[in-house]
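Progress narrative, Year 2. Work on cysteine desulfurase from uncultured Frankineae bacterium advanced from sequence curation to structure prediction during this period.
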Amino acid sequence: MLLDHAAGSPVLPEAVEVVCGLLGTVGSPEQAGGAGRRAAAVVEHARATVAGALGAAHDEVVLTGGGTEGDNLAVKGLYWAQRQQDPARTRVLVGAAEHQAVLGAADWLAAASQARVERLPVDDVGRVAVDTVRAALAGGGADVALVSLSLANNEVGTVQALDEVVELAHAAGARVHTDAVQAVGQLPVDFSRLGVDALTVSGHKYGAPPGTGALLLREGVACRSLLHGGAGRTPADRLRPGPLSPALAAGFAVATASVVEQQPAHAVRLRSLRDQLVHRVQEAVPGARLRGDPVDRLPGNAHLTFAGCEGDSLVLLLDARGVLVSTGSACSAGVPRPSHVLLAMGVPEDEARSSLRFSLGHGSTGADVDALVAVLPAVVERARSAGWR
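Result:
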C-alpha cells in the first residue's frame, strides 16, 4: 500500500500506453531524414503540451531528466549567467528548508564558484517570511544573483507565498527560481502567473515515467548550460544538449496534461482523504503531532511526529506490514539523521527523528487509511519499546 506518493507515483495508464507505442520506433530528434523529423515532431508536440498545461510558452520548456537536474540547471545556470553579466552578483539566497537538490547545488557553487550562499530561516511551519527576503535584499540587493524557494515544501507540505518575493527580487535585479516538484497535480501551477524566472518539474512525482521532467525558463532570461558538446536544434535543446527520448517526452507530456486537467477535483478528494488520515491517526495514537501549515499545505501531505519513536524504525515496521511511507530525513551509511527541514523549523532533534511523511496521490483511497490505522498503534508501541539507535 503506497502512502509515499511524494517519493514517486505509479505511472498513469495513459502515459504507459503512449510510451509503449513509441518505444519500438526508431529515430532521434537530432537525426536528418524522415525518422529524425518524426522523432523531432513527437518531442516538439510534447514540449507544446507541457507548455500549455503549465502556462508557459513553447520555447520556455527545457525537457530534463527530473527534478534534481532541473534544480541544478536553474541554480547553477542562473547564477553563472548573472555573474557573467555583473560580477558583483555573488549572493545566492535559498530557503533553509529547501530540497537537497537546491541546497546541494548552492553549496557546490559556494565551494567551486565563489558564491556567497545564505540560507534564509523559516518559521515553525517551514515557510520563508516575505520580511526575511526583504531584509536579505536590504540596501538594494545589487549583489544578489538568485533567490530560490520551493512552491511547496517536499517534506511538510507547506505552500510558499511567492508573489511579493518575486516582486522584491526583480526590483533588486535578482532572478527567482522555484522548485514546484511536489506542487504539479496538487496545486494550480501557472508559470506565467507566478512570475518566476525558472520553475522545476519532475514527472515521476505525479504519474509520468521516471527520468522525465522540465525546467521552465522565462523567455529572455539568460541561463548557462551544465552540459556541453551537443549543438541542439532549438534554444532549449542547446541549454540541455543530448538526444531526447521521444517516448519518454510523450509520456511525460500526456501525464502532465492529465494531472493538470484533473487537479481541481483531485485536490478536493485528496484534501478530504488527508484530513481523514490525520484525524484517525491522532485518534489511534494520541499525541501524534501534525507538522507544517495546518491549512495552506499540499492537499495530499500529512507529516506527523510520534514522540519517543525512531522514524526509521517506524518506516521498517510499517514496510513489513505492507505500508510504504518515508521519514523525509537523509540517511548516510545506515545512520539516521534528523530532517534538516524540521530542524530549520525549530523542532527539537529527538522529535525531528520521530516523524513520518504520509503522502497521497492518484489511486489513494479510504481503504489505505483503514489499513494504516489498523497497524499503526502496534507499530508505534513496538518502535517506542525498541528505543533510540
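Residues 330-334 have pLDDT under 50 and may be disordered. The first strand starts at residue 61 and ends at 64.
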